[in-house]
Amino acid sequence: MSAGTPRIVGIVLVRNEDVFIERAVRNAAAFCDEWILTDHESRDGTAAVLRRLAAELPSAAFHPLRHASESHALIQKFAGTPSWIFAVDGDEIYDPEGLARLRGRILAGEFDRYWMILGNVLNMTDLAADRQTATGHLSPPCRSMTKLYHFGAISAWDGYTPERLHGGKITFRPGYSNNDRRMLHEEVAWEDSDFRCLHACFLQRSSLDPAQPQTTRQNSMEVFGFTRLQGFWLAIRRFLGFPTASDYKRTRYMRGPAVTVPVGAFFPVHS
Fold first, then answer.
1. 148-160 pLDDT, tens digit each
2. Is the pLDDT of residue 74 over 50?
3. 7, 82 in Cβ contact below 8 A?
């Protein structure tokens, strides 16, 4: 592995996410040494929020994108360096105190031998009006969708990447492979986790979205797998304002019993 102090780089790629995006970035702000804030042609207030955050946060830059694939080019340079890439979506709200502890563990070298770290997740189906409790499905048994990658474990991530950290060809450095994953969500319970996320995939994420329970969007891997005809009809539905329900998310993020947990730590009143 490359010598040097580990550096954590946050990258946001969003489109029409003005409900939670500010909270998502602020909660993770201190965890990262640098922020790359990208917006893919949002029509709501998302871009304005990101521009304001980029001006406010140290070592942050805003990038408007015409194509989501442009986001991966912004992080390719970190391959082979002692960097961790932390991808945050507009529907992912992390526990800031937990991230502070996780940062210390990363900088101390606890995860140097791993390629990826996966954390605990609550896939929310309801968030109380006072934001003190939330109901949803935990990971496990749901899959974890957190995205924290050790770029010191690879020498390149090239090829076609429809968005950052998706697709393409990864070239691992000697001693590393795609199987080198630390499954923190399988080691500790939700309430004891340093790396835990509220996933708002079933809630309203944009002021443009219909305000109805369990509003879902197509997952990126569903969209990229569409035929041209399917993509055309999806674009028409979006243009007309019809919701595009996601079977991908329901089958992966609604496993196990629904639970209600306290989430006040995710919505600190002082920030």
1. 999 999 999 999 9
2. yes
3. yes
